[in-house]
Amino acid sequence: MNALTLISHPLCPFAQRAAIVLLEKAVQFDRINIDLAAKPSWFLAVSPTGKVPVLMVRRDDAEDAMLFESMVICEYLEETQGGAPMYPVDALSRARQRGWIEFATSALADAWQFLNATDRSTADAKQAALRGALERLEAELESGPYFAGTAFTMVDAVFAPLFRYFDVLDPMVSQAIFENLPRVSAWRSALAARQSVIAAVGEDYAERFRQHLRLHQSIPRGLIDRRRADRRCAAMSASGGKLTADSLAVVVQDRTLMFTGLQTLSFHAVAVCTAHSLSACWRW
Ligand SMILES: N[C@@H](CCC(=O)N[C@@H](CS)C(=O)NCC(=O)O)C(=O)O
To answer: Which end of the chain has fewer CB atoms within 10 angstroms, the N or the C?
Structure first.
């Protein structure tokens, strides 16, 4: 057993912060994922807030210490572990980075609420708030590839889990949110390619996240089903493309899920599907 154990949840963006820092610093650690819908009693006993992440620090001469709150954990790791520093040496730059970490937490909340919105007005408001935050970041970023230049710092570790959501959804969603933000987009790509960011989640992360959105019945969940809808269109065309009221309704219903909350998606998609069916129907 390692001296450090991260108590986590497979989808938690805050736990990812701690995992990224541990990986950046090449620290050996154990990870225990818990079910947040049925928190184990041992977890409730050690977590004052009932939230993950918690970092369990084994001490030979004393009882294990439990650290809670993601940034407290990250800063503890920064102070105690080797590897490249994740904060600038200069106090003013360090303070500014901490400000952007707070900003990231607020943007993360907007992203999460947008992705989980079950009504149109919340989806629109949260999408706009997230877009506004990213525009602000665009003005802040310089040459990259990371937030503060060539070094990967704590601000990178906290934004990576936010950007990851949009790698899982259809690129059309990301396009609506990231278009005309070249610096943010390049930063997002650089973070997605970073080994610590990749390894901070399990291989089943994407499927788990999609499953979460489906179960939650969120409005943007339709976006993860786009390919399924495309397959239906293709199947309908392949099978002679009978344009019945039912078959068209299936396609339109899938497409409507996408329109809701994301005006950037055009009716072009429906038109294409319908044209497919009509032309196949005509041939038939
Ligand atoms: N401020 C906390 C937020 C942690 C947090 O919200 N964790 C969520 C999972 S991502 C959680 O444990 N939720 C369970 C609950 O609220 O009951 C931190 O930075 O660590």
So the answer is: N
> Domain 4-80 falls in which CATH fold?
Glutaredoxin (3.40.30)
The pLDDT value given to residue 276? 53
Domain with CATH 1.20.1050.10 in the chain: 91-199
| Paired tokens of 237 | 């065309």
How would residue 234 be classed by pLDDT, with cut points 50, 70 and 90?
low
- Is 281 in the active site? no
Digit-coded pLDDT (tens) for 185-217: 999 999 999 999 999 999 999 999 999 998 887
Q: Ligand 1, closest atom to CA 52?
A: 12
What architecture does CATH give domain 91-199?
Up-down Bundle (1.20)
Nearest CA to ligand 1 atom 19: 70
- Binding site membership of 165 for ligand 1 (Cβ less than 6 Å): no
Q: Where in the chain is CATH 3.40.30.10?
A: 4-80
